[in-house]
Amino acid sequence: MTTNPLLPLRDKITALDKQLLELLVQRRELSTEVVNTKIKANIPVRDLERERILIKTLIEKGKDYHLDEIFIKRLYQIIIEDSVRLQQRILQENLNHNTIKSANIAFLGPIGSYSHSATRRYAAHHFDQIIESSCSNFKDIFDQVENGSVDYGVLPIENTSSGSINEVYDLLQKTNLHIIGELSLPIDHCILANEEATLATIDTVYSHPQPFQQCTNFLANYPNWKIVYCDSTSSAMDTVAKRNQPNVAAIGNKDGGELYGLQVLEHNFANQKENITRFIILARKAVEVSDQIPAKTTILMKTGQQAGALVDALLILRNHDIVMTKLESRPIHGNPWEEMFYIDMQGNLETVKMQQALKELSSITLFLKVLGCYPSDSVF
Ligand SMILES: C=C(O[C@@H]1C=C(C(=O)O)C=C[C@H]1O)C(=O)O
């Protein structure tokens, strides 16, 4: 019997990887001590200068061992990102007296959808355990959070290729839920098909309307493909897997495709190379955001119809040096030609300048509501 000559070396690598893991755990424990000290001394979580020097020193040290600069940089960015997110979680739990370690979360499902990936990623940074509740439409997610069946809802709000997700914006107009978090997820669309299929055998493609909108340039190359809208990318995968024929395919993500036993025929073909979807997290209770981390505030407002009404509102933000990161308008159903504006701003709701700006805004608008103040997702 021949033994695999790699075995002894692999055993050594496995042992080293275990040590690396243990070191990462020790580093996390130190990050926890760091944030507890920061809480007491009111020091911001982020120290970009410290991070810059740390990475620079490690790159220099790595050169002695011929370690690639980009490798070291990427590796430590991931490690530091984890440390920053851990510290943010501890700060937020401390501030909001939040001891919930297990959460019930609703998302557009079934499992394997992008919303499911976003839910898992958000949960990994915020809860020890989750109970997943997959919904067949966005309205159902709002309903489940509103009626208390679940604690949180995860919803896509905008995408770099297709823009705003109008249906979610419209549902936000009528809800009394609060935005308590956001998450940006890179989206790599794949053509997922059964074993025998090739791009040439496909004549019907299933997906949610969003991916179709995000991939119009690619789809223009296949004018013979019939397009079928589904409730979600994962329900599309489920349909394709059940049909088990070479002429059908779904557009969705690779991990989801694996769940449904589908192969990837093509990927990375969205209209924008950097195809990213931003998700919001909704809850019944608003959260407070620590002033030691970057925050965003989202408001909903209706201006009068006089000339310059929107300009006057935006000037208030400028006068208070508030950076607007997004402005969206949606028609008000039942009131033709009237618009509701959604504004995302950098900054914490509790700051004096934000409070002052909102006070001034409410005096010149017909309606104003804060949808939420939440930790900003961008770390790098
Ligand atoms: C751990 C700290 O907090 C943050 C995370 C860092 C890290 O993980 O190395 C470095 C600087 C801070 O942005 C710290 O302030 O030292």
From TrEMBL:
Binding site for substrate: R10, R27, K38, D47, E51, S83, Q87
Transmembrane segments: none
The EC number(s) this enzyme carries: 4.2.1.51, 5.4.99.5
Start and end residues of each Prephenate dehydratase domain: 104-284
Subcellular location: Cytoplasm
Catalytic activity: chorismate = prephenate; prephenate + H(+) = 3-phenylpyruvate + CO2 + H2O
Cited function: Catalyzes the Claisen rearrangement of chorismate to prephenate and the decarboxylation/dehydration of prephenate to phenylpyruvate.
Protein name per the record: Bifunctional chorismate mutase/prephenate dehydratase
Organism name: Orbus hercynius
